[in-house]
Amino acid sequence: MKLSEKFMWGGATADFQYEGGFQEGNRGLSTHDFETAGAYQSPRYITYRMPDGSVKKARSSFSDPEDIPVEGKPCICEDAYYPSHKAVDFYHRYKEDIALMAEMGFNTYRFSLCWSRIYPTGDELEPNEEGLRFYEAVLDELEKYQIEPMITLHHDEIPAYLSEKYDGWSSRHVIDCYLRYCRTVFERFGKRCRYWLTFNEINQARGYASTGTHRADNQTHYQAVHHMFLASAKAVKLGHQMMPGSKFGAMYAASAIYAASCRPEDVFYQLQCRRDVYFCMDVMVRGYYPSYTEAVFLRKQVTLKKEPGDAEILKNGTLDFISFSYYRSTITNQSREYNFIGGDPNPYLETTPWGWPIDPLGLRYVLNELYDRYQVPLFIVENGMGAVDEPDASGYVEDDYRIAYLEAHFRAMMDAILMDGVDCFGYTMWAPIDLVSLSTGEMKKRYGFVYVDMDDQGKGSLERRKKKSFSWMRRVIETNGECL
Ligand code: BGP
């Protein structure tokens, strides 16, 4: 059993977890530059300078309205460690890293552009040439090895200035800023990149880092998401006009969602939770708000501010394919509010050291469910196992647990494609080279085929070393999944 020759195999990364160089090449500050720990850790603090020059430190959830910055450039607190600042230094090591990807046989690589590297504040009219040149150099390197790029335009972050000045995506103005940035990169990279993702895990985008808004209420959240929908649809339309043949997706956090029991109430509750998770794709793939939204908004006391023409924009910018991340399945429980990352333990499944249930069949379930629901091509853009890797005396990591995880997920993916008839045209593993974890901000949660010598405080040589899974993956790709 093997996949077609055209199947796309590769890896995926995000700039703030991988790139570093946060003050190089005229890059502007991005929301993640203010996270001293992972995005889901609390308390998180950001520090910024007030208009009178004083420095304030506040929880990034901004529970106290007094803490909301009014004006002024955000500043970094000197006594804290910020994982995004150095990350694992792809900025200086991209040649070495891409050579490793080529050695594994990747024919695609998904990476995100840092918006504030290209438009440092996000609000200026002219792009930063140095930022564009960096990504051009990355694309040159990929071309050298015939690795097809897939670019994420927005991976859970926005220029910090747009957050401070406009409260991020809660402002409609940010759509214009995003479109200007898209136009620039389409113009510059359009001939070299066919696959584009407008947003990463848009159904999970909530809070300061990913939406840039300082307010956590439902009204602000859904208004911000509405603006992201419009921005995505406009980018898709523009991209299709500027780059004939280009394909657009948006990335969505998927999970097989199981009911707590066969009690009809539990099953019905699970259906409601699934709608919460599918909501974004329903709008972006079908091009309109689904009928159930009305009841949801009523329950959540949300009244969206829409402008005439919004419905038309959504209709004219639907996605060509769906890309998604799959790490785990989840169990819903009516007595607790549904939380995609949490959920009750599943007695039938083992978990990773971070408690994420390992459920390969859940991947086959998700592939089938998505394809049944939308009938558009699918791409698994993130999947992998976060584990604690212990190098032996020579520095070698025998990551058999990772091989077992991937092998089981590849079998499930191949069953969905070859036996169930699902149209899934690619897989990029998260993350081929160790990088900083999004949820915890740690280095010890590692995903890669390549070990990076760096610890949770950013100390280490940054040397890259192949793990056991490296040659295993090369063989899988070489044989298109025949040898697992
Ligand atoms: C996804 C994000 C990635 C990545 C991954 C793994 O939600 O798109 O950026 O980090 O999850 O999560 P973590 O790093 O928290 O283990």
Characteristic key phrases:
alpha/beta, 9-stranded parallel sheet, 13 strands, 37% helix, 14% strand, binds 6-O-phosphono-beta-D-galactopyranose
Give a brief rundown of this model.
The chain contains 15 helices and 13 strands. The longest helix is centred in the middle third of the chain and has 25 residues, at 218-242. The protein has a 9-stranded parallel sheet with strand order 7-6-5-4-1-11-10-9-8. It has a two-stranded antiparallel sheet with strand order 2-3. Strands 12-13 form a two-stranded antiparallel sheet.
Describe this structure in words.
By secondary structure, the chain is α/β, with parallel strands linked by helices. The protein has a single domain, classed as Alpha-Beta Barrel (TIM Barrel). It is 37% helix and 14% strand. It is built from 15 helices and 13 strands. The chain has a nine-stranded parallel sheet. The chain has a two-stranded antiparallel ribbon with strand order 2-3. Strands 12-13 form a two-stranded antiparallel ribbon. Strand 9, helix 13 and strand 10 form a beta-alpha-beta unit. Helix 3 runs parallel beside helix 5 and helix 13 packs parallel to helix 14. The longest helix has 25 residues. It starts with 7 loop residues before the first strand and ends in a 6-residue tail after the last helix. About 2% of the residues have low confidence. Bound molecules: 6-O-phosphono-beta-D-galactopyranose (BGP). 6-O-phosphono-beta-D-galactopyranose binds next to loops. Belongs to the glycosyl hydrolase 1 family. Keywords: Glycosidase, Hydrolase. This is Family 1 glycosylhydrolase.
